[in-house]
Amino acid sequence: MTVLRIDVETYSSVDLIKCGVHRYVEAPDFEILLFAYAWDNDPVEVVDLTAFEDLPTDVYDALTDPNVIKTAFNAAFERTTIAKHFGIECDPLQWRCTAVHALTLGLPGSLEGVAEVLKLEAKKDARGKALIKYFSVPCKPTKVNGGRTRNLPHHDVQKWQQFVEYCRQDVVVEREIAKKLERFPVPDHEWRLWALDQQINDRGVRLDPELFKRAIECDQQYKDRVMQEAKELTGLENPNSDAQIKGWLAEHGLVTNTLQKDDMPVLLDQAPNDETRRILELRKDLGKKADKYEAMDRSICRDGRARGLLQFCGANRTWRWAGRLIQVQNLPQNKIEDLALAREVLRSGDYDLLEMLFGSPPFVLSQLIRTAFIPSPGCRFIVADFSAIEARVIAWLADEQWVLDVFRGHGKIYEATASQMFGIPFETIVKGHPNYKYRAPGKVATLACGFQGGENAMANMDKGKEIESSEYPALVKKWRAANPNIVKLWYAAEEAAVRAVREKTTVKLKHGVRYRYESGMLFADLPSGRSLAYVKPRIKPDPKFGKDGVVFDGMDQQSGKWVSHRTYGGRLVENLVQAIARDCLAESLMRLDSEGYRIVMHVHDEVVLEVPIGTGSVEHVTEIMSRPIDWAPGLPLAAAGFECEFYQKD
């Protein structure tokens, strides 16, 4: 099939990074400046649209021709900008994204990052950022530039020519990357899934502007009040300054090097008196931000919807989705009982009543973030998620039969785990019975120990601090004794990965999973037909455990840098389980779409559907999600759901 490679340079007065491409193209001054393209291996051509040049007819026609595959690095940008500029539909089924292809192989998500890791001769033009800043974003009016707010080609002809060459070079680099990656193709079914992902992102989800604007206003009013109280108590000019507040605390008997959120509970316990405790509480409130509400305000489109909230393969170790803009993948849970009343009080602007009824504004506002997502008129949300999906997948992968039996039966995995761990009758682990106390350690151990977690994992999962920390080591041993096949899976996965790298071979695990070394990469082949990738794997001694282990290169999710990672059995199994769980969600998304359900977003293992009133049902949706999957025979899936007039956590 013919391939047309594309890169565009654009202008808009809207901030692309902060607002997203869908809001970006809605600016009245949005336009495509340069359109670079190449047919297959032909030379790259650049069309200067600012000079009133037209796209060649064959190129323009190809944009909507299903027999021509269009490719770009971060194709969502090209698709969206081209569709807007030319007033055409860019069907994602006709596109391929080279950035996504790179992410599937564990590579960076940026053009320059991939080119560097692959050591390509063709490099992204380093002048690009400065040129984009000059031509693609507004500039500040000054006496030197004649008071203009935008730089046009004639303002610096030399820079413009550099910009043209920069655009051309991006197509050269993208093509070189695509050629390097083509030996490891993305399965066709994943490109169909990506096309659905693009449709979901294009569709977007409706927001309640009255709610998020009031939330921003409420937050600012509360911050002003807190700042004033802190100034009066401390006499400081800026109590939000780390240096100033640390100095004040030291003068009042509390010396600290940190004011981080995670350290606040300890500092509050150490506070020598009520005054310092109150200052710490105020400082804690000043540190809370209405980031998500502000992101809603920036990214909402003219029709009241936010788009582009999900990044396909954003968590590239497992191919799970990542959040963008509003970051829907890490929304706070809601625990206020009367959410409807709380959101209506907020919308009314009566912030004093809101605080009186529901508590501190930062707490209430965090509880109401989800409720800012609302269905279209005449619709309601159906929200459904998989039940204990990771526990089901790991039991299936390990052939932990008693766990599978639980999920095929009553499904009460925490009680069943407690029964196995402590040797007590399952039926006695009910409220009111003394043995109910064992449910908490059964739950925490289930959540903490599946991926070779120990005492630290127990502590992280024991959020309610229901268990004495001294009990953690014994509970870890009990859980492992109750789940011997899962324990065996950790060591089998590690042994298979090490052997595959050391011998440059393929080692089968079970249920269609195998570790395969090929062309300097370690692949974990999954039952769904795709593979996880570990770049530049090698065997290195692990001094901590006195044995050899696998080390590979990859992105650090926190720093964004390309670094070396050490992995082990539990981590390898975690990758497998999360990847298979992701594939189960992918299967459900395709099935729900084919049944006519409008998916507006999905969060981890949960789908959010916008369904016209009088059509569809929770029962139908959960039945679709619970259906067996051909590539995972014997995996017991189950889903639960509910309807709502605004998004929430059930």
From TrEMBL:
Xref: InterPro entries: DNA-dir_DNA_pol_A_palm_dom, DNA/RNA_pol_sf, DNA_polymerase_A, RNaseH-like_sf, RNaseH_sf
Catalyzed chemical reaction(s): DNA(n) + a 2'-deoxyribonucleoside 5'-triphosphate = DNA(n+1) + diphosphate
Name of the top EC class for this enzyme: transferase
Keywords: DNA replication
EC number: 2.7.7.7
Domain of life: Bacteria
Domain named DNA-directed DNA polymerase family A palm: residues: 366-615
Annotated Pfam families: DNA_pol_A (PF00476)
Coiled coil regions, renumbered to chain: none
Family: Belongs to the DNA polymerase type-A family.
Name by which UniProt lists this protein: DNA-directed DNA polymerase
Organism: Paenibacillus cisolokensis
